[in-house]
């Protein structure tokens, strides 16, 4: 297999946390020597802390604190406060952001919902990048951006947006480092995925930060709560949406066990196939939405077995005929389609038995990548089950490789083999 850039053994997460800690430590020393305006620091620090408390859950088990980042960016980009040029420095922004973030984490720790250090570190580094670019250019009103005429506010606004873009790129890079480390995916795939996922919410956060910074020249401390309200409302809406999705996933998990309880599949089969399929999807750079559809489809891929008059021995559909596999797929898709809201998942399940390429025909470009992944992951688990014998794993992978001409996507099989081999090295 070709070499891939990868961050293993927690080094990516440790790097982000260590870098943030070192930057924060130096900043605290610098700020102690030359304290900033405590009123301004207190206003923005309060909202940074509140943002940590009301953080939201994101797909993939991550969290986000939009208000924390928006308030931190606003403090980093703040040119004037009540028409008076601000004097705080790059180091002051980092100290306020770090102290307020940790203060906001205290109630979460007390409630048993402690945030991950790498997420706090990433948010701190993003704000640090913005401050590192903007504060020297403004320099208390003496820098290039501080000497602009009043009718050149649009230049200042464009400069702020440019800084936000740079900070956003840093966020994508840092998020990709953490994602590649946690999911064991190639860094390049994690970078593509984070670039797509950060864009939507990140744009709203950046725009809010710029608006607060510009409005503070007229509204002073009132700018923060006034322009934070839309972002907070968006957060609460997203939180409700995330709660509904969590309920969906719980329901699907319960539904996936019906075949196990009925004796149609082995215990844990759906869970193992899903875990393996999602790991392959991560490596292939699928988006969060695509991974969600893949997860749902993998959990329910065997529902069609309930239509069989008698169970397949061991539930191993890889041993069934092509016609029987197709019937299982069609029946499962029909059940899922009845929900009225999982049409994409139904399509994936319905096409999971389709061959990658039929004899004397070109590759089927309409076959969803998720369906190809589930086909390979399901066949692998049918052959291996919960066994940890290396020889059995290698035999299963070899069988999949021998069928790459027609049945299995070669890229999927190679990626799956990489995931299996890496897990074996980690003792999983």
Q: Can you give the helix content as a percent range?
A: 55-70%
Residue stretches low in confidence (pLDDT < 50, at least 5 long) are: 1-9
Average pLDDT over all residues: 86
Bulk shape: elongated
What is the number of strand segments?
4
Series of secondary-structure elements, N-terminal to C-terminal? HHEEHEEHHHHHHHHHHHHH
Q: How many distinct helices?
A: 16
Backbone CA Rg: 26 Å
User: Could you say how many structural domains there are in total?
Assistant: 2
Largest sheet: 2 strands, antiparallel
Strand arrangement across the biggest beta sheet: 1-2
State the secondary-structure class.
Answer: mainly alpha
Describe the structure.
With 428 residues, this protein is an all-alpha fold. The chain folds into two domains: 11-242; 257-421, Hypothetical protein af1432 (Orthogonal Bundle). 68% of the residues lie in helices and 2% in strands. The chain is built from 16 helices and four strands. It has helices at residues 11-33, 38-53, 66-77, 90-110, 117-138, 153-183, 187-219, 223-256, 258-261, 269-283, 288-299, 322-337, 343-350, 369-384, 390-402, 410-425, and strands at residues 56-58, 62-64, 80-81, 84-85. The strands form two sheets. Strands 1-2 form a two-stranded antiparallel ribbon. A two-stranded antiparallel sheet has the order 3-4. Strand 1 (56-58) and strand 2 (62-64) form a beta hairpin. Helix 2 packs antiparallel against helix 3 and helix 10 runs antiparallel to helix 11 (288-299). It is elongated, with a radius of gyration of 26 Å. The two termini are 21 Å apart. The relative contact order is 0.08.
